[in-house]
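Run log, item B.
One chain of 167 residues. Sequence copied directly from the ordering sheet:
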Amino acid sequence: MNEKVCVGAIAGSFGVKGEVRLKSFCAEPEAIADYAPLTTEDGATAFTVTITRPIKNGLAARLGGIRTKEQADALRGVRLYAPRDRLPALPDDEFYHADLIGLTVLDTGGTELGRVKAVLNHGADDLLEIHMPGGPKTFLLPFTRACVPTVDLAGGRVIADPPEGLI
């Protein structure tokens, strides 16, 4: 399992005094500040986080060391990570996206369908992007109990029951 989990991303500056527009990937968006200091993916930079207010499609926040609009703009697209041990334990039927990426996907008969490439959410349920073996093709599988009845993190696999005609 990954030692750190992506909990948010910086969408750019907010205002002219160094605040950032923060997208939180946490179930409770404001909880992102509870896991600070947050680091960049390579761990080279760490930020304290102070949420200043909710805004459309995210949060306005102050990051430690960021004082100007230009500094905030330079961070656009940076993903923020928290150590796994700072995050809450999840119920049995919930998963961190980072834990799903790379798992082998098998159908209910044991045939390999591919590997989880990404977990996407476009407003409704999550979708697993599955990279099919032997080529560049991918397909999207709804991440519902009906389509994914089993997630075996310890075994590194997902059992899928895709709808007829999906693949």
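Observations after the first pass:
- The longest helix spans residues 69-74.
- The radius of gyration is 18 Å.
Flagged for discussion on Thursday.
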